[in-house]
Amino acid sequence: MTAKIAGLIVLGWIALVFTAGAQDNQLTDAQIQQLAKNLKYQQGKIKIQDGLATIDVSTNFYYLNAEDAKTVLVKFWGNPPAQAEDALGMLMPSNLTPLDPGCWAVVISYSKDGYVKDDDASKINYDDLLKKMQTGTHENNKARTDKGYPAMELVGWATPPHYDAATHKLYWATEYKIDGADEHTLNYDIRILGRRGILVLTAIAGMSQLPEVEKGTPDILGMVNFDQGNRYADFNPKVDKVAAYGIAALVAGGIAAKLGLFKMLLVFLVAAKKFIIIALAAMAAWLRKIFGGRNKGTPPSPPPPATPGA
């Protein structure tokens, strides 16, 4: 999980909820419309980060590069600039634009935390893991409310964790209930394991969009792959770093140990003139226990078909 996309490094919190309803977009509708027209919608084979990986974008999706993804995240959907700095790009359905009310998207980033061993994948009891995650989230509600943040509960798996050992791709989804939110929040995550780190794909959607996200997931899984030299199979134990966590820790909260601190996994819920960010992190004690808005505006016309690879 990258430091910026995954949020600020926090110690002592299992989950924080930030609401920014008062942080309205300062751009005029005309400015937003112009920015939307300038977005470069891409399809076909796209290289990211100098040969790190290739995204073969199907006709069902568009790809926005890092600059355009940050425009959408910050200027259209109101997220803090620091949260979007490490975005490598964004995938979104080709029949929607970022200003359409039903739009959802998948933000792509890269975490260079090392080679994640997957030998624990087949041994994980995900039902037991879920119960411990639910308990940890619930027990920290007092700390959250004392700080003025809404209480939240982990409802359960929206999609149970699934790891494909042949492709080294992991995906799962969780459902969260946040006090004061009109809709439950969907946390849909895809992780692609590589030689030196992980490609992190995070869906930005609400629970009502789960069927759409699930329908698009097989397509997304097939589109994104590490390039030769960066693949999981290219790992060289003599020179490459091994990550300090495994599959279970990825599912439990995108946990990456660095200098005794834990990064956070963000879930965005985009809504009219407000957004909610759920940041899931873990204190060392909790880790031991476990392993023991967007402005609606006036939607622009759909973009013209992009030239593949443009």
Provide a short characterization of the protein structure.
By secondary structure, the chain is of the alpha+beta class. Helix content is 24%, strand content 30%. It is built from eight helices and 15 strands.
What's the average pLDDT? 76
User: What is the radius of gyration computed over CA atoms, rounded to a whole number of angstroms?
Assistant: 19 Å
Order of strands across the main sheet: 4-5-6-10-9-8-7
- Quote the beta fraction: 25-35%
Overall helicity: 10-25%
Describe the main β-sheet briefly. Answer: 7 strands, antiparallel
How many structural units, i.e. domains? 1
Low-confidence stretches: 1-25, 254-310
User: Distance between termini?
Assistant: 28 Å
What would you call the structural class? alpha+beta
Task: Provide the fold topology.
Blueprint: E1 15-19, H1 29-38, E2 44-48, E3 53-57, E4 61-65, H2 66-76, H3 81-84, E5 89-93, E6 105-111, H4 126-139, H5 141-146, E7 152-164, E8 169-178, E9 185-193, E10 198-204, H6 210-223, E11 224-226, H7 247-253, E12 257-258, E13 261-262, E14 265-271, E15 274-280, H8 284-290
Antiparallel strand pairs: 1-15, 2-3, 3-11, 4-5, 5-6, 6-10, 7-8, 8-9, 9-10, 12-13, 14-15
